[in-house]
Design goal:
Shape of chain A: elongated
Number of strands of chain B: 7
Mean pLDDT of chain B: 87
Shape of chain B: globular
Largest sheet of chain B: 5 strands, antiparallel
Order of helices and strands of chain B: EEHEHEEHHHEEHH
CATH class of chain B: Alpha Beta
Number of domains of chain B: 1
Low-confidence stretches of chain A: 1-24, 552-589, 701-729, 747-771, 783-792, 804-817, 836-851, 854-949
Distance between the termini of chain B: 42 Å
Distance between the termini of chain A: 76 Å
Oligomer: heterodimer
Strand order of the largest sheet of chain B: 2-1-5-4-3
């Protein structure tokens, strides 16, 4: 130990002394820490790894400059270890790594390659091109353990230039007959990153790779993997021409890995060419029946569910097979995958879900959250108009018994499903609104945002739901226990807004006013309190107006509506007579007397007075507004005493009209595109640069003005007042309040949890029959999963929608990431569809539509003149098939040659041959004709080409 | 394609990290941490698949195996089959077991480059290359032979470290 300490001290000293010249002392190179030493030291460092790391890095920095190769290599090994497992940046050592690449020792070379492939990338170091020559040399190395790390580096860290430079070497390696198969496989796999970096190299690589799409090729697995990547990451269209090759592999290959990749490829290709489906059904069914491999069977099921679901036999078989997965009691992996696969089915195949209903519902109680989530997703996909009420109610009940996270997932799923497309599933909004109210009572509830949005949204869009909304809002506001739960604050804010806005539907406005002004609202954040106070303002205004008008209506024995209308017209003429306007449905309510108004004004005055000096501007402003109204009303004696003719008193009429005109207009939903519709005024220059302002203001001024607080007085003055607001009030006031609002106070016995904590919101007793819930669900789903026409007792209320669709705006951003692969797929298109005229360096892509158009065009042409050319094509294809049978190795080349020939023939038979896409068109045409012809003429060996479109 | 391979212990310390898409070091650290976060909360008797869209981007998932003190994690996208990946983890673990004779966490800690050699024989740049642990073993033995023939450094370093007793 002492030895080690002295060595480290010595090295510290030497680092100072050697700072001028970098020749390491003998001591340093002799006593260099090995990788194992370093790991041990790190593991046993008393102050944790981070205390030792700086010293070790210093050592490495010094050692890495050594002229001795082995010292340098060891330093790089240590650095690589630290960079890989301790996430240290080693970009600074890139050059040293490069220095080691040409080493003659295989061990050193391999460590250097490992280090480089772990840390190099064109975004972090631009030194790799310096190693181009070395890489080329190592690629050609006869030793596979030298060339394979070089290939790995090339595929993980290459830059576009390097990829282009080395693509020829790579090509010769792929096709080399001397190199071992393992190296050729790696070279083929490296083709993928090279193609992505340098799409222009597609001309060379793609034909070469197509050669290996042979069931007997040693490179088959890798090549299929590369094509699978290409098909799934870019535009799959160009690869349709390879469908026959893939199909042959599907029939002949025995490797599960290859078959899985082939199925993945077909999953992408089938939607483009529906006729492929017919060809695939049989082999895939065969695999599903025969294969013992679960992974392959699962891939078959997935392929059938996602792209062959129109084929009845395959679908039946796949559903049969997926049952084994879903019901695999001992293997959660299979259960999860089974449910996942069922989720791929569309709504047309809900019978398949129905057959697995029991297992799906059972999975809702699975210990694995993933399985529960999938099950929930499936259940939500079974929700239709006719069963939404039952399923939601039962799920909600189930959520009560779930763990907090899943509970909220259930709530979210219900909210999402019911809120989808303007609540299209909801027939009865009274039910839905009360469901929302119930959700809030869930003890794990944390979805305040969405409930807030939906409550207000329904209020704005669905007129018929408003009375129920107000009732629910009242229940929420009046419960003092809810105020302590911060997840509910947003819901309360929505409730307060609803009770203010639609107060005319309330049975007892006074009760709501008391709820909105209860002392515990000090627990709410200021934005919510501002909403509360604004609601109080509307409420007071409403009560006063309806008091005045109500008196009139009782005098004249007329309907409240007409009177309001007549009154306002008499006064102003502009206020509409709206059946739902501010003083709408008065008939059902208790009579408002001057006493109750006075009581309410007093209440508002007492509760809001302290807030008029609150340091939250929003709260302060609203409180002052409300107080202003109260003072104004208090200032008029006539209505209190109800002296003769008070209703025609000038001030009172003025106030009533003012209130009517401020609040009678209904608020509606606003389209997200609304702003676009307003033309920008000419004087407004939105795009003008505001930097000129900086000169005027000076940068200092700006930063100063930002820090100015809006509060009118000193902050400190208010802080303690605000915190202890209820307590700070005189005790007598509190006692009085308690007497009046006993409802909001708890019994006075001391709480165990200390202070005056209210009981947890939504206390609920765990009932003993929790195990029954899944059975309940099962029962539920017994009768109601398949969509039926609903017999509704009452018509569905209209939901206000805006013409332009609120969601339009979201679609625009989707195109962003599509451009990435375009260049490559364009290049591949050129190769596979053979648009020879286009110079490959242009990198321009052929739009997909154009290709499709061309394909269609050829299809039509060929249908027309299939009679005339059929013979020659058949001869041609006979030749083709025989030649390809004879010589499998030359399959690809042969085919290309053949299509050239057919091109010539076609050129004679049809004058409208087009230059640029000649090759491709003929190829397609030919295949289509074959497809038609094969029906008439029995040519079994041609079956493969049948779907070559 | 396979996006990444990670081996970490149940405390979240990485033992082997290989990304097949370049990630800068800080990002690597973050990814390892989020993968550990996703795994550590999972019980033992649950499925081995986790959707990883939030960690590695759209359409990615990870499969893991919890063995003794280690998590073996493969991250992959939709062009791989989940069950096949699970098999591949098995191949990897089997190979390690053969190579180190009853592999344990310490073997992984002290055999950084050998671990990478094994992995690189099985997975190359995100493609599955070899699924037979016998073949992998053969290659690994050959590499060891090759590196031994002309490798003075490990001998020197070992003798020195032995004397230092660290």
């Amino acid at each position: 130990m002492a030895f080690a300490a002295s060595s480290s001290a010595g090295s510290a000293g030497s680092s100072v002394s050697c700072s001028g010249s970098f020749t390491p002392s003998l001591v340093d190179s002799l006593f260099q820490r090995s990788l194992d030493d370093m790991i041990k030291a790190l593991r046993s460092a008393p102050g944790g790894e981070s205390s030792l790391l700086p010293r070790i890095i210093d050592e490495i920095r010094r050692e890495v400059r050594s002229t001795d190769r082995d010292t340098k290599c060891l330093a790089i090994q240590k650095l690589t270890y630290l960079s890989s497992l301790h996430s240290l940046d080693m970009a600074w050592a890139a050059f040293h790594v490069l220095e080691l690449l040409p080493s003659s020792s295989p061990a050193v070379k391999r460590s250097a390659y490992l280090s480089a492939s772990l840390s190099f990338h064109s975004s972090s170091t631009d030194l790799l091109p310096l190693a181009t020559h070395q890489l080329r040399k190592d690629l050609q190395s006869p030793n596979p353990f030298i060339s394979s790390p070089a290939l790995h580096l090339l595929s993980l860290s290459s830059s576009p230039d390097l990829a282009l430079h080395l693509s020829n070497d790579l090509l010769s390696l792929i096709s080399s007959t001397r190199a071992p198969a393992a190296i050729r496989c790696r070279a083929a796999a490296t083709a993928l990153p090279v193609l992505r970096l340098a799409p222009n190299s597609a001309r060379g690589f793609i034909p070469e790779l197509v050669e290996f799409l042979e069931p007997s090729s040693p490179l088959l697995s890798t090549t299929v993997g590369v094509f699978c990547e290409l098909v799934s990451s870019g535009d799959p269209c160009p690869y349709l021409t390879l469908a026959p090759d893939f199909h042959r592999i599907l029939l002949e290959s025995r490797s599960n890995w290859v078959l899985i990749k082939i199925l993945k490829i077909f999953t992408r290709l089938t939607p483009l060419e529906p006729r492929l489906g017919r060809k695939l059904v049989d082999p895939i069914c065969e695999l599903m029946r025969r294969s013992p491999s679960k992974s392959l069977v699962f891939e078959c099921i997935r392929t059938v569910f996602s792209s062959l679901s129109e084929h009845e036999t395959a679908l039946r078989l796949a559903v049969e097979k997926v049952k084994d997965f879903v019901a695999a009691d001992d293997d959660p992996n299979l259960r999860y995958l089974g449910l996942h696969a069922l989720g791929l089915l569309g709504s047309n195949q809900s019978w398949a879900l129905e057959e697995n209903r029991e297992a799906v519902v059972k999975s809702l109680a699975d210990p694995d959250p993933n399985i529960r989530r999938e099950a929930l997703r499936l259940i939500m996909s079974m929700v239709f108009e006719n069963n939404v009420m039952e399923i939601s109610a039962l799920l909600l009940n189930y959520a009560l018994r779930s763990d907090p996270e899943f509970s909220n997932e259930i709530l979210e799923a219900i909210l999402l499903t019911c809120g989808r497309n303007f609540y299209e599933l909801v027939m009865d909004f009274d039910w839905y609104v009360s469901l929302l109210g119930e959700m809030v009572r869930n003890p794990h509830f944390a979805k305040g945002d969405e409930i807030e949005r939906q409550l207000i949204d329904i209020g704005l869009r669905v007129r018929e739901a408003r009375p129920e909304l107000v009732r629910i809002a009242r229940d929420l506001l009046i419960d003092p226990a809810l105020l302590g739960n911060h997840f509910l604050h947003q819901v309360l804010s929505a409730s307060a807004w609803i009770s203010g806005e639609y107060i005319q539907f309330s049975r007892n406005p006074l009760e709501i006013a008391e709820a909105l002004l209860q002392p515990r609202i000090s627990l709410l954040p200021s934005q919510v309190r501002a909403v509360y106070i604004q609601a109080v303002f509307k409420l007071v205004a409403f009560c006063f107006v309806s008091f005045v008008n109500g008196e009139i209506s009782s005098d004249s024995n007329c309907d409240a509506y007409e009177n309001t209308g007549a009154d306002s017209e008499g006064g102003d003429g502009e206020v509409e007579c709206n059946p739902n306007s501010f003083v709408g449905s008065m008939g059902t309510k208790e009579h408002i007397t001057s006493k109750s108004i006075i009581h309410m004004l007093n209440l508002v005055g007492t509760a809001l007075n302290p807030l008029s000096e609150c340091d939250e501007v929003e709260v302060q402003e609203r409180a002052r507004n409300a107080l202003g109204l109260v003072h104004m009303l208090n200032g008029i004696e006539e209505w209190k005493t109800e002296v003769e003719g008070w209703k025609t008193h000038g001030r009172i009429r003025e106030i009533v009209e003012l209130m009517n005109s401020s609040f009678s207009e209904e608020l509606g939903p606003v389209s997200t595109l609304a702003q676009m519709k307003i033309s920008v005024p000419q004087e407004l220059h939105l795009k003008e640069n505001l930097s000129d302002l900086a000169e005027v203001l000076g940068s200092n001024d700006i930063s100063l003005s930002l820090s100015v607080s809006f509060s009118l007085r000193k902050q400190g003055h208010f802080e303690n007042k605000d915190e202890s607001e209820p307590a700070n009030e005189s005790t007598s006031l509190l006692a009085e309040h308690r007497k009046r609002h006993g409802l909001y106070y708890l019994p006075t016995e001391p709480d165990e949890n200390g202070s005056n904590e209210y009981p947890r919101a939504n206390e609920f007793a765990l009932s003993s029959n929790s195990s029954n819930t899944t059975e309940d669900l099962l029962k539920l789903t017994d009768h109601s999963l398949i969509s039926r026409k609903m017999k509704s007792a009452k018509p569905r209320p209209t939901v206000v929608k805006l013409n332009e669709g609120d969601f339009l705006a979201t679609t625009a951003s989707k195109n962003a990431n599509e451009a990435k692969e375009d260049v490559l797929s364009g290049a591949v298109k050129e190769v596979l569809l053979g648009s020879e005229e286009k110079p490959s360096s242009s990198g321009k892509t052929i739009p997909e539509e154009a290709i499709q158009m061309r394909l269609k065009e050829t299809l039509i042409y060929s249908k027309f003149d299939s009679g005339s050319t059929e013979k020659s094509i058949l001869v041609e294809s006979k030749h083709r098939s025989s030649s390809s049978q004879k010589n499998n190795k030359n399959h690809g080349k042969e085919r290309r040659r053949n299509s050239k020939k057919s091109e010539d023939k076609d050129g004679n038979s049809r004058s409208s041959a087009r230059g640029s896409h000649h090759h491709a068109r003929n190829k397609h045409k030919q295949s289509v004709e074959l497809g038609d012809a094969a029906l008439d003429v029995a040519l079994p060996s041609l079956a493969i080409q049948d779907f070559l479109l | 394609m396979i996006r990444a391979v990670m081996v970490m212990n149940t405390q979240g310390k990485p033992r082997l990290v290989r990304f097949y898409e370049f990630q800068p070091p800080e990002k690597q650290k973050e990814l390892i941490r989020s993968v550990y976060g996703a795994l550590s909360s999972r019980a033992d008797n649950v499925s081995s698949f986790v959707q990883a869209d939030k960690i590695f981007g759209q359409d990615t998932r990870l499969v893991y195996k919890h063995l003794a003190t280690l998590y073996f994690v493969f991250v992959f996208d939709s062009s791989e089959n989940e069950l096949a990946m699970l098999d591949l983890i098995q191949v990897f673990v089997e190979t390690l077991d053969r190579c180190f004779k009853n592999v344990c966490e310490l073997d992984l800690v002290f055999n950084f480059s050998k671990l990478h050699s094994i992995l690189d024989e099985i997975i190359f740049a995100g493609h599955v290359l070899e699924t037979s642990s016998e073949q992998v073993m053969k290659a690994i033995e050959e590499i060891a032979r090759l590196e031994k023939t002309a490798n003075p450094i490990s001998i020197v370093a070992k003798s020195v470290s032995g004397r230092l007793g660290r």
